[in-house]
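Supplementary Methods. Inverse-folding protocol.

Structures were first reduced to a C-alpha cell string of length 396. This string, shown here, constituted the complete conditioning input.
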C-alpha cells in the first residue's frame, strides 16, 4: 500500500496534504472513470515515464558526436552539462548516467567534468583513441563504471584551477618577495614556461638561504622538488603533502600548471563542506531539546509509523520526519508554547527536512547558497523561540 500511494502521488493521482492523510485528486478520479484495462495501461505508462531519468535526446547526442568529428566540439559549463541530464549536483548516480550515455555515443568531456568547478568550461570530444569506447551507437549504457566517480578530487578545490603566479629562476629575489608580500602569498612557483616547473620559493626557503648567504636571485632560494598534483587525483592522496609542506601545485591533463592548493584552501573547503551538517545538527538539537522538555517518552511513540516497532527513549530516537509529523498536530505544537504560527513552522521544517535528505547524499559540489541560508534562518528562529521559553522558566 505504501508503494502504491507513493507511485500514484508521483503521477498526481493522489495527494497528501499532511502525514497520514491521502485524497484522490481530479486526475485520480479521471483514471477511475476509465475502463479497468485502459486505466491499468495508462497508469503503468505514466509511472514509467515519471521515473524515467532525464537524458538528452538521441538527436542531441548525435549532434555532439558530429560536432566533435568536425573538430568543432560543443563547449559548455559543467553546470550546463548537468542540466541536460536534469541534475544540479554531481551525485554518484548522476555521474554514472552521464558517463555511460556519453561513452555509448563515443564521447567524453575534456577536461573530465568530475574534476572541474561547476562553472568551468568543458568540451564534448571524441572518446580517446587509446581507449575503446563502450559503443558507437546511442543506446543502452555500459554497465562497467569507475568505482570512485564522485570522490572529492583536487580539481574540486576552487584554487586548483584559479591560476598560478610564477617567477623565473633568474628574477631578482626582491621582486619575488615584493610579489609575495603584495599578494599575501606564502610561496611562488618558479617556472620556465607554463609546463616546466623548476621549483618553488617560500618564506622558509628564503629564511634558510638568508642565514647561510646573501641571496640575490630566486634561484638562490629554490626548493627544487615541490609536490605536484593532478586535477583528477583524489584529494585524500595529496592531503599529507599539503599538511607537511603547506601546498601542492596543480597540473591539468596536458601537464600545464593551472593552480595551487594550500593548507588554507583545505581549511576553507572543510568549512564549506561541513557547514550544512553542523547547521542541521544544531537544528535537530534545538528541536529535540524542546520535545524532551514537553513530551513524555510514551507520547513520542505515537510519532512513529504504526508498523515501526523500534524502541523510543527520548527525542533523539526520532527522525526529522517524525519530529515534523509530531509537531504538525495543532495540540502538540501548542504544548511547545512557542510564539509562532504552526503552519508556517511546519512548512519551514519541511524545507529543512528536504535539504537534509539532499545533504546526506554525498556530492563534491557545495550546497546551493539559498538552501544554506534557509538552514541558518531556521536555526536562528527556533533558537530564539526555545530560548524565550527557557528564560521565562528561569525568571519564573
Amino acid at each position: 500500500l505504501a508503494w502504491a500511494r507513493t507511485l500514484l502521488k508521483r503521477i498526481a493521482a493522489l495527494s497528501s496534504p499532511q502525514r497520514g492523510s491521502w485524497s484522490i485528486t481530479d486526475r485520480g478520479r479521471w483514471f477511475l472513470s476509465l475502463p479497468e484495462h485502459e486505466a491499468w495501461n495508462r497508469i503503468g505508462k505514466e509511472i514509467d515515464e515519471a521515473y524515467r531519468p532525464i537524458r538528452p535526446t538521441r538527436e542531441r547526442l548525435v549532434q555532439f558526436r558530429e560536432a566533435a568529428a568536425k573538430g568543432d566540439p560543443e563547449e559548455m559549463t559543467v553546470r550546463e552539462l548537468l542540466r541536460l541530464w536534469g541534475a544540479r549536483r554531481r551525485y554518484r548516480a548522476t555521474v554514472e548516467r552521464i558517463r555511460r550515455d556519453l561513452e555509448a555515443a563515443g564521447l567524453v568531456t575534456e577536461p573530465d567534468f568530475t574534476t572541474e568547478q561547476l562553472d568551468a568550461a568543458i568540451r564534448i570530444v571524441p572518446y580517446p583513441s587509446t581507449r575503446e569506447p563502450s559503443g558507437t551507437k546511442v543506446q543502452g549504457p555500459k554497465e562497467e563504471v569507475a568505482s570512485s566517480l564522485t570522490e572529492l578530487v583536487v580539481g574540486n578545490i576552487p584554487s586548483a584551477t584559479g591560476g598560478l603566479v610564477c617567477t623565473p629562476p633568474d628574477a631578482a629575489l626582491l621582486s619575488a618577495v615584493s610579489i609575495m608580500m603584495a599578494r599575501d602569498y606564502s610561496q611562488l612557483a618558479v617556472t620556465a614556461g607554463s609546463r616546466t616547473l623548476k621549483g618553488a620559493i617560500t618564506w622558509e626557503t628564503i629564511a634558510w638561504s638568508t642565514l647561510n648567504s646573501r641571496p640575490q636571485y630566486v634561484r638562490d632560494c629554490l626548493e627544487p622538488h615541490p609536490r605536484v598534483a593532478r586535477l583528477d587525483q583524489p584529494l585524500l592522496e595529496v592531503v599529507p603533502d599539503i599538511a607537511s609542506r603547506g601546498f601542492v601545485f596543480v597540473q591539468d591533463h596536458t601537464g600545464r600548471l593551472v593552480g595551487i592548493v594550500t593548507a588554507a584552501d583545505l581549511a576553507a573547503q572543510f568549512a564549506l563542506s561541513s557547514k550544512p551538517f553542523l547547521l542541521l545538527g544544531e537544528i535537530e538539537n534545538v528541536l529535540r531539546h524542546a520535545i524532551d522538555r514537553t513530551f513524555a517518552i510514551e507520547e513520542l511513540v505515537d510519532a512513529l509509523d504504526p508498523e515501526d516497532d523500534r524502541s523510543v527513549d527520548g527525542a533523539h530516537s526520532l527522525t526529522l520526519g517524525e519530529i515534523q509529523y509530531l509537531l504538525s498536530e495543532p495540540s502538540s505544537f501548542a504544548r511547545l508554547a512557542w510564539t509562532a504560527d504552526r503552519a508556517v513552522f511546519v512548512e519551514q521544517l519541511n524545507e529543512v527536512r528536504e535539504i537534509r535528505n539532499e545533504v546526506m547524499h554525498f556530492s563534491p559540489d557545495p550546497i546551493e547558497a539559498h538552501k544554506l541560508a534557509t538552514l541558518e534562518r531556521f536555526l536562528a528562529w527556533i533558537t530564539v523561540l526555545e530560548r524565550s521559553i527557557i528564560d521565562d522558566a528561569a525568571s519564573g
